[in-house]
Amino acid sequence: MISVFGLLVHKHRKGIRIAIALLMVIFALLFYVVAAMKNYPASSTVISPSGRYILENVRVGKVLTLGGMAYLRVIDRQAPQEVYRTPLYDTQSLDMRVTEDGETVGIAWIYFNRDKKTFDIAMPQWESHWLNIFISNTPYEHIEN
C-alpha cells in the first residue's frame, strides 16, 4: 500500500527533476545565443588613423529580440588574438567616425584606453543590459553627460 506521504515525495522529486531539466535547457540556450553573438560578423568596420586598430560595430538584433542593439569589437593588429568588446548599446546613437590620440582609440561616444585596456562610454542615455555580463569582456565606465 502506497502512503499519501510517499506519493507526495514521489511527485516532489519528479517536479524537481523537471525544473532542473528546464534550467539546463535555458542555460544551454543562453550559452548558444551568447556564443553566436560573440562571433557575429561586423556590420561596419573602420580602421584607426594609425592603422593599428580595427573597430567593428557588431549588430546583435537577430537574437532575443535585441533589435537595434550592438557592441563595438576592438582588435589590436599587433596582438590580433586580443579582442575587446564593449557592453551593448543602442545603434541609433552610433557614429562610426574614428578618433585616435596618444591614449585612446574609438568612435563617437565610445573610447578604448590602449594602456589600461578599458572602455569609456559617453553615449547619452546609455542603459546597461543584463546580457552585458556575457558580451563585454573588457572593463568599462559609463561617463554621465
Low-pLDDT residue intervals, each spanning 5 or more residues: none
The main β sheet shows up as: 5 strands, antiparallel
Q: Helical proportion?
A: 25-40%
Shape: elongated
Number of self-contained structural domains: 2
Helix count, DSSP H or I runs of 4 or more residues: 2
Distance between the termini: 72 Å
SSE pattern: HEEEEEEEEEHE
Kindly state the mean pLDDT as a whole number?
A: 87
Please tell me how large the radius of gyration is: 21 Å
Give a count of the beta strands, DSSP E runs of length 2 or more.
10
Oligomer: single chain
Tell me what the structure shows.
This protein has 145 residues and is of the alpha+beta class. The protein has two domains: 1-39; 41-142, no CATH class. Helices cover 27% and strands 29% of the residues. The chain contains two helices and ten strands, in the order αβββββββββαβ. The protein has helices spanning 4-38, 132-135; strands at 44-47, 53-59, 69-76, 83-85, 89-90, 98-100, 104-107, 110-113, 118-121, 140-142. The strands form two sheets. Strands 1, 2, 3, 4 and 5 form a five-stranded antiparallel sheet that branches. The longest helix has 35 residues, at 4-38. The termini are far apart. The model has no long low-confidence stretch (mean pLDDT 87).
